[in-house]
Specification:
182 residues; 2 domains; 5-stranded antiparallel β-sheet; 3-stranded antiparallel β-sheet; 8 strands; 21% helix
């Protein structure tokens, strides 16, 4: 008797689930007609396009207000050209075509960047920094660039999108901890 009831429940659940998802059709703008999901386009983006070299600075614990105490290596580590290309591939520009119908979900977490990618030009002039926090998965550009990460983007808004799996891969290959699991 239990197996019949479970089977009947499973069939009913599947039919109910299928009936809730209506047909989706593509409209002329490439969006899904009845989709409730966000629709966005992505483009390559370089936060500091004139950079010719990048150094990684890692905090052993946390930043102080001046951002200098606790550095594991005050000179930083110069990234190879392969590592720099991998780093650059982690950044993109995301433009929201249509926000999700249900809105965005955000979680609160303190921004404690322990990794700083510092970008330099061919004369070794500092162009800016990408501060990375692997605890809350946020990046801050300093000085602020044209794009920033946004928690609740509006339709048509462009913002910085970061692929943290690429950054984690880069750090793992460099044998640098993320501190997120500690």
């Amino acid at each position: 008797m239990k197996s019949v009831n479970l089977k009947t429940f499973a069939i009913g659940f599947v039919l109910f689930t299928l009936s809730c998802s209506g047909p989706s059709t593509n409209s002329s703008d490439g969006s899904q007609g009845n989709s409730k999901e966000e629709i966005a386009k992505f483009e390559n983006y370089s936060p500091f396009p004139n950079a010719t070299s990048v150094r990684l600075f890692v905090q052993s614990e946390t930043f102080d207000e001046g951002g200098i105490d606790g550095l594991r290596d005050a000179r930083g580590r110069l990234l190879t050209s392969k590592e720099t290309e991998l780093l650059k591939s982690a950044f993109s520009k995301k433009t929201v075509i249509r926000p999700p119908a249900e809105g965005y979900v955000d979680t609160a977490c303190a921004f404690v960047p322990r990794h700083v990618f510092r970008f330099f030009d061919k004369r070794n002039k500092r162009l800016g920094d990408a501060l990375v926090c692997f605890e809350c998965y946020e990046v801050e550009l300093q000085p602020p660039g044209a794009l920033a990460e946004v928690s609740f983007p509006k339709q048509g808004q462009s913002f910085l999108k970061v692929d943290y799996s690429i950054l984690e891969t880069l750090l793992r290959e460099m044998k640098v901890p993320t501190y997120a699991d500690q």
